[in-house]
Amino acid sequence: xxxxxxxxxxxxxxxxxxxRFTGWKDIDLTPTGIAEAEKAGIxxxxxxxxxxxxxxxxxxxxxLDIILKACDDQQIPVIKNAALNERSYGNLExxxxxxxxxxxxxxxxxxxxxxxxxxxxxxxxxxxxxxxxIPYFVHTILPYMKEGKNVLIxxxxxxxxxxxxxxxxxxxxxxxxxxxxxxxxxxxxxTDKQMDGLQYEPIK
Length: 204
Fold this sequence. Notes:
- By secondary structure, this protein is α/β, with parallel strands linked by helices.
- It contains nine helices and five strands.
- α4 (97-104) packs across α5.
- Catalyzes the interconversion of 2-phosphoglycerate and 3-phosphoglycerate.
């Protein structure tokens, strides 16, 4: 038996456009983001989706709503959970990235943004995000796939990078430069054997 997993990063948000650290701040889509979500829905139209998961943040939920409308799949179950939220940027949330670099220095901001295990002040590292997202995927989402259901996850750049790292068995060094484009579906076809091999081990 094989199940399909669709991953979509939300469309462009207002703070994406303004080059701000967004994290857990609840910022909605721009017109461009809405168009990106519509395009993702058109791309997924015709695919069979049994259940969808998203975060508790409006930009992901809005993207999912647009996708399901485009797919004519508005009646499928939707589960929202903070485990799929974007990485928290803590004290940096709301700050312009260029202004933050001028304040703290380019090198420090690059470390906060791109290192695997260094968290910004009051926020999460990518490692922290991984250790939040993957247990939820393994214990809550994967069982649906093992029943043969096809799953759609609409989430965020770093929560999805964590999931891609897990599914593709990437190292911390390999995931650092991995980008997840807004509104572009990623598709994984997983067999029973592959799913049985997906075991969560905390990264320490």
